[in-house]
Amino acid sequence: MSDPAKRVVVCPGTFDPVTYGHLDVITRAAGMFDQVVVGVVNLPWRKGSTVFSVEERIGFIENVVREIENITVEAFTTLLVDFARRHNAKAIVKGLRAISDFEYEMEMNQLNHRQAPEIESVYLMASDKYSFLSSSGVKELATFGGDIDDLVPREVATALKERLAR
Ligand code: PNS
């Protein structure tokens, strides 16, 4: 349980795998709030199976944020708002890329707000170089031997090439 005096936020996602776009949002959130809890969705039946296990997805993030003291990473298997409540989070922080994200996030925002009106959702606009970066795009590139070295951490790029390259 987090210290109630701290401004805690959660940064949720499937992170299959984490990209520099996600890491940009997570580290910017860490600069704005006292504590960031990265929540990695662990619901195997949701959106089909993931390329990486939840342990692998958590490990990829931890290996990058290890030095940043106010970021922790953990799996969750509940409603996002219940995960946020468990951590006494004041807000859910998400990245917004192109306008195509807006509709989905608007829906999630309303669902989450209906369940937990006391928890705000805060959106950080994606940095321009990551505006069109997605985990699914990176997986597609990796499958066909594209260059992904500028899009994901080195460990992730190596793992993706091993797992997906045809
Ligand atoms: O796009 P992602 O990475 O799969 O997003 C996952 C998440 C949890 C951020 C998004 O689905 C969301 O905001 N869900 C709210 C509804 C909820 O709590 N669902 C159960 C956990 S997925």
Give the overall pLDDT as a whole number: 94
Spell out the CATH superfamily. Answer: HUPs
Oligomeric category: single chain
Say which molecules are bound, naming each kind only once.
4'-phosphopantetheine
Main beta-sheet strand count, sense and barrel state? 5 strands, parallel
CATH class: Alpha Beta
Topology pattern, helix = H, strand = E:
EHEHEHEHEHH
Distance between the termini: 44 Å
The CATH topology, please?
Answer: Rossmann fold
| Total E-strand runs | 5
The domain count comes to 1
**Spans of at least 5 consecutive residues with low confidence:** none
Backbone shape: globular
> What's the CATH architecture name?
3-Layer(aba) Sandwich
Structural class: alpha/beta
| Number of helices in the DSSP assignment | 6
Helicity, in percent?
Answer: 40-55%
Summarize the model shown:
The chain has helices at residues 20-32, 54-65, 80-86, 100-115, 135-143, 154-164; strands spanning 8-13, 35-41, 71-76, 91-96, 120-125.
Please outline the helices and strands.
Blueprint lengths: L7 E6 L6 H13 L2 E7 L12 H12 L5 E6 L3 H7 L4 E6 L3 H16 L4 E6 L9 H9 L10 H11 L2
Parallel strand pairs: 1-2, 1-4, 2-3, 4-5
Question: How does this model look, in words?
Answer:
It is a single chain. With 166 residues, the protein is an alpha/beta fold. It has a single domain, classed as Rossmann fold (3-Layer(aba) Sandwich), CATH 3.40.50. 41% of the residues lie in helices and 19% in strands. The chain has six helices and five strands. Strands 3-2-1-4-5 form a five-stranded parallel sheet, sandwiched between helices. β1, α1 and β2 form a beta-alpha-beta unit. The N and C termini lie far apart (44 Å). The mean pLDDT is 94. Bound molecules: 4'-phosphopantetheine (PNS). 4'-phosphopantetheine (PNS) binds next to β1 and α4.
